[in-house]
From TrEMBL:
SMART domains: B2-adapt-app_C. It is a peripheral membrane protein. It comes from the Eukaryota. Residues 580-594 have a biased composition (Basic and acidic residues). Residues 637-802 form the Beta-adaptin appendage C-terminal subdomain domain. It comes from Salarias fasciatus (Jewelled blenny). InterPro entries: AP_beta, ARM-like, ARM-type_fold, B-adaptin_app_sub_C, Clathrin/coatomer_adapt-like_N, TBP_dom_sf. Belongs to the adaptor complexes large subunit family. The gene is ap4b1. This is Beta-adaptin appendage C-terminal subdomain domain-containing protein. Keywords: Membrane, Protein transport, Transport.
Amino acid sequence: MPYLGNEETVKELRRALSNPNIQCDQLRYRNTVLRVIRSMSQGVDVSGLFSEMVKACATVDIVQKKLVYVFLCSYAAVNPELSLLVINTLRKDCQDPNPMVRSLALRNMTNLRLPSLVEYVEQPLTAGLRDRAACVRRVAVLGWAKLHHLQPDSEIDAVVVNELYSLLRDPDPVVMVNCLRALEEILKEEGGVAINKPITHHLLNRLKECDLWGQCEVLRFLQRYRPKSEDELFDILSLLDASLVSPHPPVMAATLSLFLSLCSGVPSVSLAALERVRGPLLAACGSGSREMKFAALCHIQLLLRSIPGLLGAHYKRFFCGYAEPAYIKQRKMQVLVELVNDDNVGMLLDELKGYCTDVNPDTAQTAISAIGRIGRSYSDKCLEILTGLLGLKQDHITSAVVQTMRDLIWVCPQCSDTVCSSLEGCEETLQDSQGRQALLWLLGVYGERISSAPYTLEGFIDEVKSEISPGVKMELLTAAVRLFLCRPAETQDMLGRLLHYCIEEEADMCVRDQALLYYRLLLCGLDQTRRVLQARRSDPSLGVFIGRPAEPVGQWARSFNTLEPLKDGAVETEPASRGSPEHVTFDPKPRSDLPETLSCSYSETGRSEDGDGDGGDGAQPPDSRSAVMASSTAAPLSLSLSPPLSPEEFERLWLQRQALQDEPGCEGAREEEDCVWVEECIECPTVPHCSPQSLQAAMQLVNIQALAFTPPQALPWRVYLYTHARRGTARRSLVLGELLYTGAACRLGDGRAEDEQTEATAAGRAEGEDGERRGIKVTLRLQPRDETCLRGFLSVLTTVLNTLTEHSD
């Protein structure tokens, strides 16, 4: 949206443009036009100067013409009637003796993009195709593509199409490439430009004349041609041989893609071509451009699927640099796993061990996962490294190591003794749900070999009421039942307590149903339970197939030199997820909770209510909270921390609220055009006494990021947070929030204590001396405006704070 600016500025520019004294001085006139363009670039609305600028284009000064044409193309859609005034000047310039003026006029005539001017543009474009200057022909060819894009339903004259095909033999290589692009756009509904044998050989013979991107474009179009004989195929390959080892990675990639397309029936030639591009690919991996380096690594992974030993001797080229970004380090580690062999395994493991303590947790977890994959071949060396990492007592490292051990022991059961002996005390360091689930799986499957398994499991059971993740609870149920089958005397009592809680008190239906399943299964007898839960295990004496068979090139040839390898590389090949998921979905429909979510029900009587809202015999939730729940049942709410928000950007957006402080509004809500503000009071006064680590961990479990917070016990206590929220298929909204606790009664924006909520009945709620309820004031800002999404987020945030309150109680 343009910034209107000062009207005096526009008036001053109009007076200057209309001043005869300035018009007579070419330099002053040009500087005045330059001031108009400068004001336009700063956001000032100068559309009122359109007629004056039309007059300014009638000049012999090429610089001034360029400036005026920039203005006219920017405001032509705003002033379609006045745009007719400039057509005569442009058509006149198309006949100027200077080819630069002709090309400039022709380009801007097509850039006006007004359907009403099409009839005036066709004749100059046709004449431009036959112009003696190459720069004019370049513009005219692309001008026909713009004209077709402006009116896609209109038919282009066959004479024009034939003229464009004939220009494929133009002496200027840029005209030739532009003709390919224009014909592809114009003939899109007919399948694009037709590539036959004469055109193919002509393009190949002139390939070296084209610039870098012109060569890539020509090579892409040549993939449509299929040679009629083997001799013709090898003639084409001979012409492409020099481009296959080009020092320019885009040309090399396009040439290899054409090689693979032409040689789909000759696998030996395809493999030979892959061998030849080894040098250019390694050079691309050392490029100074991070994007080029990442793309080269992704395509190297494709090549290794067919030739695993292609780069085995060059494994040191894939060692990570200190200053490299995390996504390149992680991709290099994936390549290193493919290059491991008996000769370099020691050096590779030492290198990966150093990455395990990287400051970036994702990089460290990727390195640990890579060691685990190598451990399928060299289990003893890898287990020694993994066991040593457990001694660091860092939560993200311990979590990744336990998950890696779980995956390793699944395919290499001979490692079970070493893994079981190294798990002592891991539960004290694990913080994330994925790591706890992996540990519980190991305790359940190999509990008879771990002496402390019942005591570790009992610690989890004692804290099950404060456990947030349903996945951990479900894994805990399975582990407890499995351990009961092999150590019943030590496990019977704790299993009974766990089943009683999950059946009678648990609000999550998935956890409750699984507990009922195990309870009824135990009623059928221990033999039946063992048959279900203790299936046959692999023989520890058996090994595992190492590596993977080489894939035919044809399985991935179509995806080479496209974005597909980059998208595939965004996910690890390991089935186990690492850390928090990218998106956590909340679906607070009646009596249905998704895994890894917090229940959005409210506790008003000291116990969890079911999601159906009837509340049993307990007190009903307050009206405002009922409205929150009602507004959040329309569609699932998805929260994400991507893209990240810097503290500086948060401060800039948050301070915009000060401009709204003096505006009147309803209680607790202030709104602007594409933004909504909401203030609520949540009665959980014990949350400010929680440690920052506990608060941040609880927020991150549901993809809410806390940017700043005051120390516990300090007053006033504040927390600033953000997330990205989306409901269903709607657009994503940025949510900014502030939690404020002053120790006094919770007051909203109008200065009055909030008295609209129903009276609290739960024990332990703090009250002021005058009977007013104390709580945390929550201020939320959402942009773009989506009140339903904001209320859904408020429901999630309330659940997190209530859960922390229950834990602290």
